[in-house]
């Protein structure tokens, strides 16, 4: 083939051969073709385009009542769908969802994992999202989030995050399946600067828009703390979701959620966000600081709150000249005062715990994560 490199020519031959083998009735050769397609499409966008004709035969392999066909065909389809919108849509249109969703219930953990990864990839398509949701996929993904392998749990929560952005009723389904404890568990154990933390915090931000979601998060030991840790150490996008979640909670019922949020030491991270956050997270951080500052309980005038005075000063001066220099100096002062106040507060609570000091009956969220 004139004009082609030897490597490109060899790839073209391999593509044609794989397509031919898929049409044969020999099970061994069809499995080999699926494995070849998986290999060819692993990194090559061109091969994904050239092998679009393979979608229908591969989907038919998923429907065969023979487990030896399932994994090779599923992995080939998964690679065909990566970064290719047309292939994603074609795979769903060819009827792949029914067998893929059934694999979520398979006793084979590998097949479960590959099916979850496939749904994650397919759900990245806006066209596919409502179709996948309508097939009853969400409860099964929550089951994977609870009982699946570590990789399957990650893919499940990311797929749920994809599906949550299309239809509001999907969030209700996620809440009804009691997914919050498993989302929080994953958020606790992952790196707070990771992509999975970003997806978990985005999902939590959406779920706390419902009272059931807020109750579920605060009832989960270390749930609010995990969100605060993302606010402190996450990516800019993750921090935006974290402050959004906490702000939604506080705005919904400040008297109920102010103390659980303050209890986890959120103030330093919020102050940093007012200076270094994204354009969206900065105003959210300022609003949340104001809500946290204004206590619904009266305070003796003889005991001024030094920390809240510093917070108020930063908010009032944030738009003035030399805002960065002053804010950083105040932030350093705030961190020191916050540590001193927290220590004194813990010492006092070790001696006595009055209803005014602790409006919520349980101290569970102060306990360190067991993960």
TrEMBL record:
* TM stretches of this protein: none
InterPro entries xrefs: ARM-like (IPR011989), ARM-type_fold (IPR016024), ARM_PUB (IPR058678), Armadillo (IPR000225)
Task: Kindly state which keywords UniProt assigns to this record, in alphabetical order.
Answer: Repeat, Ubl conjugation pathway
Name by which UniProt lists this protein: U-box domain-containing protein
The record's listing under SUPFAM superfamilies reads:
ARM repeat (SSF48371)
Q: Provide the Gene Ontology terms for cellular component.
A: cytoplasm; nucleus
Name a Pfam family for this protein. ARM_PUB
Per-repeat ranges for ARM:
53-95, 95-132, 136-178
The source organism is Glycine max
Q: Which residues form the U-box domain?
A: 30-294
């Amino acid at each position: 083939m004139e004009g082609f490199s030897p490597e490109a020519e060899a790839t073209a031959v391999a593509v044609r051969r794989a397509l031919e083998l898929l049409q044969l009735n020999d099970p061994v050769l069809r499995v080999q073709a699926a494995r070849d397609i998986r290999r060819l499409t692993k990194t090559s966008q061109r091969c994904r385009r050239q092998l679009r004709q393979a979608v229908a035969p591969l989907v038919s392999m998923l429907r065969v009542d023979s487990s030896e066909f399932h994994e090779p065909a599923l992995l080939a389809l998964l690679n065909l769908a990566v970064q290719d919108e047309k292939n994603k849509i074609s795979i769903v249109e060819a009827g792949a969802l029914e067998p893929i969703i059934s694999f979520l219930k398979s006793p084979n953990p590998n097949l479960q994992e590959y099916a979850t990864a496939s749904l994650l990839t397919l759900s990245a398509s806006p066209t596919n999202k409502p179709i996948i949701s309508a097939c009853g996929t969400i409860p099964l993904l929550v089951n994977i989030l609870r009982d699946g392998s570590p990789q399957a749990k990650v893919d499940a929560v990311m797929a749920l995050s994809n599906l949550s952005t299309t239809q509001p009723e999907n969030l209700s389904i996620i809440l009804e399946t009691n997914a919050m404890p498993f989302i929080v568990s994953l958020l606790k154990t992952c790196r707070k600067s990771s992509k999975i933390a970003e997806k978990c915090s985005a999902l939590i931000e959406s779920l706390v828009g419902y009272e059931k979601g807020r109750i579920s998060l605060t009832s989960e030991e270390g749930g609010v703390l995990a969100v605060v840790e993302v606010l402190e150490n996450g990516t800019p996008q993750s921090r935006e979701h974290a402050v959004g979640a906490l702000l939604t909670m506080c705005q919904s019922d400040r008297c109920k959620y102010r103390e659980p949020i303050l209890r986890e030491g959120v103030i330093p991270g919020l102050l940093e966000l007012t200076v270094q956050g994204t354009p969206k997270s900065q105003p959210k951080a300022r609003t949340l600081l104001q809500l946290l500052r204004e206590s619904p309980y009266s305070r003796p005038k003889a005991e001024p709150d030094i920390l809240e005075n510093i917070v108020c000063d930063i908010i009032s001066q944030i738009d003035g000249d030399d805002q960065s220099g002053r804010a950083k100096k105040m932030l350093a002062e705030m961190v020191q005062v916050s540590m001193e106040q927290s220590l004194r507060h813990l010492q006092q609570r070790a001696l006595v715990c009055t209803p005014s000091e602790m409006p919520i009956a349980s101290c569970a969220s102060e306990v360190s994560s067991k993960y």
